C-alpha cells in the first residue's frame, strides 16, 4: 500500500512514519513543510515531498498515486489558525481528484461528541472543530478519526485500548500507541471497513 503521511515531522507524525516502516506493508511518502527535521536514518527509506498544506496544488500533487493518507496535522501554537480546516479541505479535494479512499486523521478527545470541554479553550480549537465538522460530513471518504487525550512522547506500550465515541482508559496516550493503532488498523482491510466513519478515543492503559 502506498501511504502518504502528512505532518511527518511532528511528534505523532514521526512515530507514525517509524511504525509504518516497521510494519513492512507500506511504501511511505512523507509530506512535510521542511525535510531538515526528519531523522536522517528515515529519509533514505521513504520518499519525501516538501510543500505547504495550505496550498491545494502541493497536497493534491502529493496525493497522486497514493492508496491511503494519514494526517498528523498539528500546529505549534495555540492561536487562531486555518491550518486544520483548510488543510483538511485540501486533503479531501486531492483524495477526490485522485480517487484515494482511505484517510486516518488525528483530532482530540475534547472534540468527541458529548465529551465535556474545559471552560477555557485556546483559539486553535475553533479551527480543529471546523476540520472535524468538515471531514465527518465527507462520507465519500472512508475517514477514521483518532481522538487522543494528552499525548506523551514515548514508544508503543503494546497495552492500549481504543473505543468508539469514548475514552477507554486514562487520559494519556503515547505517540507510539497512536501510531501503532492507526498503522495496524490501516494495514487490515477488514479493520478499515469496520472503523470507517467512526471516531475513536485511545488510552495507554499503564500510564
Q: In short, what is this structure?
A:
The chain has 207 residues and is an alpha/beta fold. Helices cover 35% and strands 23% of the residues. The protein has helices spanning 11-23, 40-43, 56-63, 83-97, 124-136, 175-186, 189-195, and strands at 2-6, 27-32, 47-50, 68-71, 102-106, 142-147, 150-152, 160-164, 172-174, 198-204.
Q: Topology of this protein?
A:
Layout: E1 2-6, H1 11-23, E2 27-32, H2 40-43, E3 47-50, H3 56-63, E4 68-71, H4 83-97, E5 102-106, H5 124-136, E6 142-147, E7 150-152, E8 160-164, E9 172-174, H6 175-186, H7 189-195, E10 198-204
Parallel strand pairs: 1-2, 1-4, 2-3, 4-5, 5-6, 6-10, 7-9
Antiparallel strand pairs: 8-10
Helix pairs in contact: 1-6, 3-4, 4-5
Instruction: Find the CATH topology.
Output: Rossmann fold
End-to-end Cα distance, whole Å, is: 33 Å
The CATH architecture would be 3-Layer(aba) Sandwich
Note the total helix count. Answer: 7
Share in helix: 25-40%
User: Which residues form runs of ≥5 with pLDDT under 50?
Assistant: none
Reported for the largest beta sheet, the result is: 8 strands, mixed
- For the record, the CATH class is Alpha Beta
Structural class: alpha/beta
> Which strands sit side by side, in order, in the main sheet?
3-2-1-4-5-6-10-8
